[in-house]
Amino acid sequence: MPIRTNRGRAAVYRRLWGWPLRSPRHLVATVVGLIALVITAGIVFDHTVGSTSSAAPGTTTGKPAVPGSGNQIGVLPPTGTTTPLPTKAASPTAAASSAPVTADAQLVAESWIDAWLAHPPGTTNAKWLGGLKPWTSDELLPTLQSVDPANVPKEIKSPVKATRSTTDSVDFEADLETGKLVLTVAKLPEGWRVHKYSRVG
To answer: What is the pTM assigned to this prediction?
Structure first.
């Protein structure tokens, strides 16, 4: 039957508290039981705290975010979808090595100068350019459209000679009535062509 009076409960409590003191065996059993209870409570507490702290604060449950979708801050997209960074600019190629003057480059230089000097009175720029075109690069022709043939010397005082020669370009010069003519003949896909010229003096 249940205990319904305070005196009865007190008697039960006295028996429970007094049980460990009845003998050394009871005392040892009580101490061991308390130690086991404390250890068990500690293990349960550690497991509970560890499981709650393993999830990062602010994260939500559900489907994991797809890498690269922009839902996660600080997550790099997959390497296969990234645009490669620009690489360092390629270093300049080594200077072309010296080479003997080719017969084709020499012929182009002499033919270009002959056409450059060929402008009888009344020669138009278009006709003058027509004689230069076979020996001139496409980049240089537009520059020559502004030249008045009447201002171009009519003869040279010395043969055309090479001053520098490499595998892909040759520099030539010739003495004029009013100074010196310097031109560069370059090896292009269409062949050797005069690519640059200047008058000195």
So the answer is: 0.52
